[in-house]
Amino acid sequence: MRFRKEETPQSPRCSPPPREALSEMSSGAPGILSVNKTAESPVSGSGNKRRDSLGSASSCPIFKDVGEIYSRLLDHRPVIQGEIRYFIKEFEEKRGLRELRVLENLNNTIFEANDKILPKCEEVMHGNLNEILKRSSD
C-alpha cells in the first residue's frame, strides 16, 4: 500500500519500544532495563559508545528518506503509467490518421467508379444487349 507523503502513518518504530522489549533485546531474557544502563555496540570495542535503538526518534527521518529513495529509484509505476498514456495517445492519433486516409481512399474510389467506370459499363452492357437482341430476333 502506498501513502502520499502527508498521509504516511506513524510507524510503531518511530516511538521508543517498551523497556521490557529493550531488556529482552540486550540480555535475551525478559526484565526491566534501568534508565542508566547503556547498550554497547559489539563492533565498537571501546564500550563507552551509546547505540541508538531501532525505535529512536532520530530514525524516523531515515525511514522517510529510505521510502523516498525507494519510490524514486525502484518504483517505476509513475514512469510506466506516463509511457502508457503517451503510447495510447500516439496510437489513437495514428489510428485516427490511418482511418482518415482509408476513408479518403474509399471516397476517391467511389467517385471514380461513379464518374468513369459505371458509364463505361453501361455503354458496353447496352451494346452487348443490343447485339444479343439482334441475333436472337434473326
From TrEMBL:
It comes from the Eukaryota. One of its GO terms (cellular component) is BLOC-1 complex. Residues 35-47 have a biased composition (Polar residues). Residues 1-60 are annotated as: Disordered. Belongs to the BLOC1S5 family. This is Biogenesis of lysosome-related organelles complex 1 subunit 5. It comes from Laticauda laticaudata. The lineage of its organism: Eukaryota, Metazoa, Chordata, Craniata, Vertebrata.
